[in-house]
């Protein structure tokens, strides 16, 4: 297995180009299933999750062309499968998003219960309840969600928890339903708005995206369209925190500050100078140690759970004490144990991490347990006095495009060691003895 080795190398300084948003690109790519024609996408990030989604769509009969700049043309004219097997959906949570489009388009879907980051139990009851309200008959058998319906019909759906993929699944299903669907307590994330914009470009009638009431007037069919995926606000936030942790200066380019109020607000509170100029966001610490900040995760526009782990690392390296409360997922503190191995002072009590900041951490062999946890370990390695060897980095490759190249360009000391090189090199192995 590949590993990352990160060694502290002083303040980061430079520009980083932000990729398209994973969590927008995945539902949008999957929305191609709704069209008897072509969806052409640009600004798609080069990530393992995109490859996984393309394999799944290919299996379902979507023909795909991709160029070297990651422009993807998905042609779903010949979709001939409505079963998404375990092997293709087990590594990625977003695979559940084929459920709504397949029932809407084919009248039938069988989707294996999905995997993804092990950050909580992550049920899909709201996806199922919403489809049932639209007239689908749904059973769970042998690990598969099996849904059937001749034609979905519009319905009034109340989501009793705010669910991002739940809202997306139902929005896509409702686009081809007969009649009008209203989703109450819908998620308001920028990725929801991006999906709605893409669906509307295909001829759907979605309004209210970005508010908690979505109205979708079903249409009989959708048509060819092109769409550019929005920038990744979580990748942006991660590089800005890298700048904060190392007391440096990082300018994130090709991004969008309006998606990021909660995160930018906390970085300012931590003592960063933040300058927004068009599609660039610059963070400058002027050599200062960040100040500890309290964090409470909640659905957008509040502080995103996908930035919690990175802020735990920042607080572990900050001046002062802080608490970080995780309100979305019940098991999203697995990075804490690894950060403790690196010398971080963190006490965990239920869904709250109590953190006492310190100047530096100590490099250690650590294990990536999920996507953002992996990022938090890389950030910790940037301020450690010995090499940090991060194992199981396939998690990070799900969501960060070329992370070692982007960080190296900012001045970080980070190397990817392919598994076969690691296995044959005792000097590398000595780093974890
Ligand atoms: C591919 C993608 O976009 N992933 C994001 C998406 O995940 P995902 O869409 O899976 O997360 P949800 O918004 O659905 O989850 C929010 C909360 O609702 C609960 N819930 C959800 C669905 C359901 O049917 N029943 C239920 O109880 C979940 O257990 C969780 O406690 O939003 C999360 C919250 O911002 C992010 O961390 C993930 O990066
Ligand atoms: C949790 C995440 O991804 P997923 O929902 O695909 O597991 C994430 O992007 O942080």
UniProtKB/TrEMBL annotation:
Question: According to the lineage, what is the superkingdom?
Answer: Bacteria
Supply one GO molecular-function term. Answer: UDP-N-acetylglucosamine 1-carboxyvinyltransferase activity
Catalytic activity line of the entry: phosphoenolpyruvate + UDP-N-acetyl-alpha-D-glucosamine = UDP-N-acetyl-3-O-(1-carboxyvinyl)-alpha-D-glucosamine + phosphate
Q: In which pathway does it act?
A: Cell wall biogenesis; peptidoglycan biosynthesis
Q: Does the keyword tRNA processing apply?
A: no
- Listed binding positions for phosphoenolpyruvate are 22-23
Q: Where does UDP-N-acetyl-alpha-D-glucosamine bind?
A: 93, 306, 328
| Listed CDD domains | UdpNAET
**SUPFAM superfamilies for the chain:** EPT/RTPC-like
Alphabetical UniProt keywords: Cell cycle, Cell division, Cell shape, Cell wall biogenesis/degradation, Cytoplasm, Peptidoglycan synthesis, Pyruvate, Transferase
Cellular component per GO, a single term: cytoplasm
Annotated EC? 2.5.1.7
Q: What is its main location?
A: cytoplasm
UniProt subcellular location: Cytoplasm
Question: GO annotations under biological process?
Answer: cell division; cell wall organization; peptidoglycan biosynthetic process; regulation of cell shape; UDP-N-acetylgalactosamine biosynthetic process
Residues that the record marks as modified (2-(S-cysteinyl)pyruvic acid O-phosphothioketal) are 117
Q: Name one Pfam family in it.
A: EPSP_synthase
Gene3D superfamilies, alphabetized: Enolpyruvate transferase domain (3.65.10.10)
> Domain Enolpyruvate transferase spans what residues?
7-407
The catalytic site is made up of 117
| Family under the similarity heading | Belongs to the EPSP synthase family. MurA subfamily.
The family database entries (NCBIfam families) matched by this protein are listed as: murA, PRK09369.1
Known role: Cell wall formation. Adds enolpyruvyl to UDP-N-acetylglucosamine.
User: What protein name applies here?
Assistant: UDP-N-acetylglucosamine 1-carboxyvinyltransferase
């Amino acid at each position: 297995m590949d590993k990352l080795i990160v060694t502290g190398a002083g303040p980061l300084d430079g520009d980083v180009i932000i990729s398209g948003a994973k969590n927008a690109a995945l539902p949008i790519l999957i929305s191609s299933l709704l069209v008897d024609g072509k969806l052409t996408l640009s600004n798609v990030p080069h990530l393992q999750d995109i490859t996984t989604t393309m394999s799944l769509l290919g299996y379902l009969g979507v023909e795909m062309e991709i160029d070297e700049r990651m422009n993807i043309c998905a042609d779903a004219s010949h979709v001939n499968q409505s079963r998404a097997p375990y092997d293709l959906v087990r590594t990625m949570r977003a695979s559940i998003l084929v459920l709504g489009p397949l029932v809407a388009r084919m009248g039938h879907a069988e989707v294996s219960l999905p995997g993804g980051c092990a950050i909580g139990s992550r049920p899909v009851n709201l996806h199922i309840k919403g489809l049932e309200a639209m007239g689908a008959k749904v059973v769970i058998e042998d690990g598969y969600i099996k849904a059937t319906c001749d034609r979905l019909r519009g319905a009034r759906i109340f989501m009793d928890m705010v669910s991002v993929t739940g809202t997306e699944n139902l929005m896509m299903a409702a686009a081809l339903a007969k009649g009008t669907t209203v989703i109450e307590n819908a998620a308001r994330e920028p990725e929801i708005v991006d999906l709605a914009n893409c669906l509307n470009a295909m001829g759907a009638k979605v309004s209210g995206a970005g508010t908690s009431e979505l109205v979708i007037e079903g249409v009989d069919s959708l048509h060819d369209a092109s769409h550019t995926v929005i920038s990744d606000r979580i990748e942006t936030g991660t590089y800005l925190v890298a700048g904060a942790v190392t007391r440096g200066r990082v300018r994130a380019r090709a991004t969008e500050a309006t998606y990021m109020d909660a995160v930018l607000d906390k970085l300012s509170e931590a003592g960063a100078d933040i300058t927004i100029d068009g599609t660039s966001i610059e963070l400058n610490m002027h050599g200062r140690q960040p100040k500890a900040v309290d964090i409470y995760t909640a659905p957008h526009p509040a502080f995103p759970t996908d930035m919690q782990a990175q802020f735990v690392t920042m607080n572990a390296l900050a001046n002062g004490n802080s608490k970080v409360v995780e309100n979305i997922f019940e098991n999203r503190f697995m990075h804490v144990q690894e950060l403790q191995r690196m010398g971080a002072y963190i006490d965990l009590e239920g869904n709250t991490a109590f953190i006492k900041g310190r100047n530096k951490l100590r490099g250690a062999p650590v294990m990536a347990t999920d996507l953002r946890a992996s990022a938090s370990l890389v950030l910790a390695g940037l301020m450690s006095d010995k090499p940090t060897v991060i194992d199981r980095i396939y998690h990070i490759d799900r969501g960060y495009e070329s992370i070692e190249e982007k960080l190296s360009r900012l001045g970080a000391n980070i190397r990817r060691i392919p598994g076969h090189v690691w296995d044959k090199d005792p000097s590398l192995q000595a780093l974890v003895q």
